[in-house]
Design brief:
By secondary structure, the protein is an alpha+beta fold. The protein contains nine helices and four strands. It folds into two domains: 73 residues, no CATH class; 110 residues, Endonuclease, Chain A. It has a four-stranded mixed β-sheet, sandwiched between helices. The longest helix is centred in the C-terminal third of the chain and has 18 residues. About 3% of the residues have low confidence.
């Protein structure tokens, strides 16, 4: 990590550590983009610092890379997986809506191209009750005319290119089998 000089912001109230603002500003300048994003998203999402404050501290031509990371922060994220998947989907040019409420299903992590539900599941989704709940939500999504894909930590963190490729492949199949002029939905896949 390069030397950034003396801390400029208040230190932690009782721990002998540098304050959060300095930590995040250093991370934005020194860490790889996605690592810095995860740290900033966590701090902003928990209300410990504002995105506006960070933008104000990163003005000028030399901070373009830093501001591009700040632009990736999303208003609400339930997990680091959502943050990272959102970046990968956006960079692939996919039209994505986050935290969409689907009648009969509930809130889904992503609705891609208005036809594909994508869920990013952490370890709590491996508990038997969660597995059953998720499968029932998948079923209701499909009955409602949506396709469904689920991705886990390894997929989002270690294999994002494969995850995006699968999403694009499902969308390609969906588009190729739709009946022109017919209603969009899973029923079209089997026509």
């Amino acid at each position: 990590m390069k030397d950034h000089g003396r801390p400029e912001h208040p230190r932690h109230a009782w721990l002998p550590v540098v304050g959060l603002a300095d930590v995040l500003l250093h991370a934005l300048h020194c860490l790889p983009e996605l690592e810095a994003l995860v740290m900033v998203q966590s701090a902003v999402g928990s209300g410990n610092i504002s995105l506006e404050f960070l933008f104000a501290k990163c003005q000028g031509r030399r901070n373009g890379k830093v501001r591009s990371v700040l632009d990736l922060v999303i208003p609400r994220a339930d997990s680091v997986l959502e943050v990272l998947a959102n970046v990968h989907f956006a960079r692939a040019g996919l039209r994505v809506r986050r935290h969409v409420n689907i009648p009969g299903v509930g809130e889904v992590d992503f609705l891609v191209e208005e036809c594909l539900v994508v869920e990013t599941d952490g370890s709590t989704h491996f508990e038997p009750r969660s597995v059953k709940k998720d499968q029932r939500r998948n079923n209701r999504s499909i009955i409602g005319g949506y396709l469904v894909l689920r991705y886990y930590y390894d997929d989002v963190v270690h294999r994002p290119e494969a995850m995006v490729a699968e999403v694009q492949a499902v969308l390609k199949v969906w588009r190729s089998r739709r009946i022109p002029g017919g209603p969009a939905g899973v029923a079209d896949l089997f026509a």
